[in-house]
Amino acid sequence: MSGDPEQARRLRSVPPDTAPNADELLPRVARGDEAAFATLYDAMAGRVLGLARRVVRDPAQAEEVTQEVMVEVWRTAGRFDAGRGSASAWILTMAHRRAVDRVRSEQAHTNRVLQVAATEQHVPYDEVVEDVTARLEREQVRRCLDRLTPVQRESVTLAYYGGHTYREVAEKLQTPLPTVKTRMRDGLIRMRDCLGIEMGERA
Questions:
Q1: Contact 6/178 with Cβ under 8 angstroms?
Q2: What is the pLDDT of residues 67-84, one digit of tens each?
């Protein structure tokens, strides 16, 4: 989930014949191969970030979309159908859809706020349900955060709750940027597994 422009530039400049093959990596990711995911992440995160930035415009939100997409890739790799296109196209389609959803969600939120302010009515029932659901999800995330190692939790918390970029997190922790990215990636993998278990138990 890299927001490092220099890394993104390096990824885009990798010659096609030496670039990691996403079509070969994705089936391994589907089998839970974390090394394959790390390679796929390094190969695709820069392209996902570039696409997200073109859609949502806001750099911070583009980084969030990139992080969400790469977690979704890890979680749903088994759904990829090679008969319907390439792995990279599948990932970028996912990224475009999520980026568009983010823009629509932000616009819908703005419209609701303006509507409530204009009419001075009570908060609609749907918004109450949405607020309760969001609180439950936050509690679930906090429980999963507690299961991370201290260094993973600190990095994830600074990035997600503090709104810092990877470079800023590295500076605050006085830790090399590649180490912070590795902690974040490993932390996200553990979060994904934890959230999957939590969701199953809740169901």
A1: no
A2: 999 999 999 999 999 888
